[in-house]
């Protein structure tokens, strides 16, 4: 009878074959936990701790300060412009790459990745070089009384550039995997280009699109380097939230700095929660598609 | 609705997918495009549908030039190999899609749409699945839904790209006889692409055999099977044995066997290859006067009512075995076992002078 209990199911056997000794597992998990505690949890908690250290009144005063409110408004405005622009660009680029064959496709994919590989400071400097007073278009812009650098348009440009890859990178593999057959089927059945996009393509990519948009938004609100170079740090006018935090911190106004920073940290937490939710939904969606 | 294809050519980079192809599809017939992968059959189908453009040539629907017509306006039904059902829509919405996207003036009312979709789902015997999603269906069911969806817009022609290619053998057989019955009821001009010769011969009214972007032969299943027009068709449609032979003024020799070949009356000492189907070879125990080829039985395989023999010619440098099929009765009469000596003679053969053949090194030497 002992032989009856001996054979294990294939799954269990495979699991055991793949499993490391207990101490290695404990060590790896422990190491990860220590790392996360040191570099993530403690800083995150300290942000909120420092923000509320001098009481809720100080916290509220810091985030209702006119300069802080202006910074929050500006940050929201920038995100409200940059995210839709990148949605448009991301879908267009992913569509072109996934559904058409053309020369220079790989180059285009590489170019989309460029903002990830270039230091944000450099991206900012490029815009100063092009649109700044001493830049290529500087004198022309000055003559026509248009301000891009040290003004909101510059910040939008820099933010759009830095956040370009998020949506496109998310959609390209998804759309490549789905292929063009469903679109072809729709067109053969008489659907117009817009009907095909709206009723067939969009529903198939909506979770990926949302996921990309949320990451894009988080970065658009949090971008520091590129924005710092082009903004000019004019309080109440071209100061975004991250820049405002820096200014307050440099003025030794720690409570206010951490108060504004806590809003950004909160944004990160909300983003994380949304991202997890979407990943979960997306997984369900993909399982449906694959079965 | 007839379809006419005139001098189509299509190039993908350096690869020629279609090479001056002309073809006529009669109204109401079920035509098979048969060929190995890369033969251009799918490209031809997609060109007819308007999913692919051509470099030159014309497509006519009912005598009218449709070459520059957009896919959307061609009113064709297209069934894809991997079904291409809309994964985010229910089965009902999938079938209704073609009606729903019509401009308002031509769009049937919701009740009409409902009626027509349910009728089609009934036709493909899947009306009980209307509220499911594609991922909940089996491959065979999905393909039937794809067909219902294509028929919903009342297409003038139906085009099917390897419709049963992704299904397992049993479902494939069921579906193809079902398709044949469906076509007999509806008489819609249909073209389907397949690489499975059995499927083409069994289902189609006429078969177009394609190879390397060209049409090798067009004919009824019987014609292409019984009288292949080229060595390629011979080899592609079923098993065949190749024998080296010699042609001279209307006569051919395979070893000591001499046969009439009136269609090659002009030939002067030409090397040729004789194509012989496995069931068209006579097997005898003894040489009964007539010239025959001596061979040894190397393998005996009994499959149902027929027995497959593998023979190797005696005094032969080439050891490619000869495939022979005989009836079980004949096999009992002969009482053959491995190692026996037999004498064989082709009952019927086709001769192709050597310049027509490429890559037939496996032919039996004389």
Structural overview:
The complex is a heterodimer of chains A (291) and B (366). Chain A is built from 14 helices and no strands. With 291 residues, chain A is mostly helical. The two termini of chain A are 40 Å apart. Chain B has 366 residues and is of the alpha+beta class. Chain B contains ten helices and 20 strands. Chain B has helices at 41-49, 71-74, 91-100, 110-123, 139-152, 169-186, 197-203, 221-226, 231-236, 328-334, and strands at residues 3-12, 15-25, 30-34, 56-61, 64-65, 76-79, 157-161, 189-194, 206-211, 214-219, 241-248, 251-254, 257-260, 270-276, 281-284, 293-303, 306-313, 322-327, 341-346, 350-353. In chain B, the strands form four sheets. A six-stranded mixed beta sheet of chain B has the order 6-7-8-3-9-10, sandwiched between helices. In chain B, β4 (56-61) and β5 form a beta hairpin. The radius of gyration of chain B is 25 Å and the shape is elongated. Chain B starts with a strand and ends in a 13-residue tail after the last strand. Residues 357-362 of chain B have low confidence and may be disordered. At the A-B interface, α10, α11 and α14 of A face β6 and α5 of B.
